[in-house]
């Protein structure tokens, strides 16, 4: 038996006896032992498999450029990151934009605004749409990442990736959603069109916020593994799978307002299955892209 066939046999066996992911975890640990982490291989792994929770923050920090590929630099770089975090936080307290009672996600927002030169003149100024997006992502990230310094830097890196790497791709996702939904269930798409719902679907929640506030964090982090490692198109297939999962409910609703309201507040107990099926659907239509949007 060849090495590959042995590995495949073990993977199938582990999955059958309830140890799905054992082989994948071992593969990731081997990758993380390299003196210089291979970014491309980490991206490929994250695209193919869910990251084990114990390694997720580390891999995300490396892929988002918060940590360099070289292991020996990690401790020193994180020391600098912590120092920068403390300096920015102190500056915000001096100008009285935050205090000890300020919610943590709002602190992250003000830090991000200050660092990007977008801090408003007064904390009482109304939030902009992009601020609301940042808060939603930060709130979800807070449930995934325990350490506040890590949480800020990962949120910052994630939002910067959306604003820079995916800037041109994100506006195209609603059109791609319509295309793939038509391939999977043209009758369902026809119903949405008949109800004039296609243009009123919660695209901001799905694509700008990357489902933050829509899916529970335990499911969401599996989607964000793909976003962080190179594909925002996974978001399209999560949206498609939500429609397919709740087809009967959506088909029973006959106006766009009711459909949108339901889709903004989908039942949470189906989320793990939705994400698993969405990832399968994504692989079916797109293969395993590494650095594509």
Overall shape: globular
Question: What's the main sheet like?
Answer: none
User: Mean of residue pLDDT?
Assistant: 91
Helix/strand order, N-terminal first:
HHHHHHHHHHHHHHHH
In terms of quaternary structure, the protein is single chain
* Helix vs. strand class: mainly alpha
State the low-pLDDT regions, or none.
Answer: 1-19
Query: Helical residue percent?
Result: 55-70%
How big is the Rg? 21 Å
Figure out the total of helices. Answer: 16
Distance between the termini: 38 Å
* E-strand count: 0
Strand content: under 5%
Protein name: TBC1 domain family member 7
Subcellular location: Cytoplasm, Cytosol; Cytoplasmic vesicle; Lysosome membrane
Keywords: Cytoplasm, Cytoplasmic vesicle, GTPase activation, Lysosome, Membrane
Domain Rab-GAP TBC: 50-231
């Amino acid at each position: 038996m060849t090495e590959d066939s042995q590995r495949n046999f073990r993977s199938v066996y582990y999955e059958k006896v309830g140890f799905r992911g054992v082989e994948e975890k071992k593969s990731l640990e081997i990758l993380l032992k390299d003196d210089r982490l291979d970014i491309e291989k980490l991206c490929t792994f994250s695209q193919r498999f869910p990251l084990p929770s114990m390694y997720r923050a580390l891999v995300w920090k490396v892929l988002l450029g918060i940590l360099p590929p070289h292991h020996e630099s990690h401790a020193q770089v994180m020391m600098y990151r912590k120092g920068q975090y403390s300096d920015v936080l102190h500056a915000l307290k001096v100008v009285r934009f935050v205090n000890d009672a300020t919610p943590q996600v709002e602190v992250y927002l003000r830090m991000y605004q200050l660092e990007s030169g977008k801090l408003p003149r007064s904390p009482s100024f109304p939030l902009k749409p992009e601020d609301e997006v940042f808060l939603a992502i930060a709130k979800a990230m807070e449930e995934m990442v325990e350490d506040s310094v890590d949480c800020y830097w990962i949120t910052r890196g994630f939002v910067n990736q959306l604003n820079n790497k995916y800037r041109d791709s994100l506006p195209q996702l609603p059109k791609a959603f319509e295309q793939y939904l038509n391939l999977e269930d043209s009758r369902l798409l026809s119903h949405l069109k008949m109800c004039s719902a296609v243009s009123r679907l919660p695209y901001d929640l799905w694509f700008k916020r990357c489902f933050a506030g829509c899916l529970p964090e335990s499911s969401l982090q599996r989607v964000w593994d793909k976003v962080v490692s190179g594909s925002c198109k996974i978001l399209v297939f999560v949206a498609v799978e939500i429609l397919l999962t709740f087809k009967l409910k959506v088909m029973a609703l006959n106006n766009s307002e009711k459909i949108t309201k339901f889709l903004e507040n989908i039942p949470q107990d189906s989320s793990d299955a939705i994400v698993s099926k969405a990832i399968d659907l994504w692989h079916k239509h797109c293969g395993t892209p590494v650095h594509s949007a």
